[in-house]
């Protein structure tokens, strides 16, 4: 469950540079690998912080670091740093990227909205052509995904060339917005669309590979802390989701 030596070789440089920049004052620094292993144990098991085993730093220390790294955007920076590194290695394919959202149950806190499934938070993600996460965001579950798409895509460190989505994203406004930024939206038309827009059938053949973003969510929910939101603050929950995505990205290095 802990970070392996090979994984640490990949993480050590970006993790140390990103996380230590945000800690210029205060308590003495802890070993970042030990702290990361403690937070990762919580992320994967979904257990309360107080149940953190004794082989890790005190749970108060791990929680404090996680909270600080979430507030400073360090998890997001680490996710983007790894994605950019994979692009430089030629392992990221942005010719077709996939976007989708999924539901995480939550009872209280910020960015929690009512749906037919109950109250919860919506996780939005963009992947490359093989399913590597490029960005992930958390919003209120009651907001429609088409309204969140542009904000999610803008958060990508690597701009995609095409974005493939399901028919829920079929919006003339979204198409125009993405087109201005040089991004093509590929998605089926809604059945109730009044104004027909020509879309080449050859482009729509890319839609059959949209399962890759759904597979990402399946991998993501292997970390139980992302399946049900226990955090009151939305940024602390998003940090857990981003950490789970970091672990998924690491698989592409080996």
In short:
This protein is α/β, with parallel strands linked by helices. 44% of the residues lie in helices and 14% in strands. It folds into 2 domains: 5-84; 93-232, Nucleotidyltransferase, domain 5, CATH 3.30.420.
The unreliable regions are: none
So how many helices? 10
Distance between the termini: 17 Å
Question: What count of domains describes the coordinates?
Answer: 2
- Helix fraction bin: 40-55%
Per CATH, the class of the largest domain reads: Alpha Beta
Instruction: Calculate Rg over CA atoms.
Output: 19 Å
Q: Calculate the mean pLDDT score and round it.
A: 89
Class inferred from helices and paired strands: alpha/beta
Strand content: 5-15%
Instruction: Return the string of H and E elements.
Output: HHHHEEEEHEHEHHHH
CATH architectural designation of the largest domain: 2-Layer Sandwich
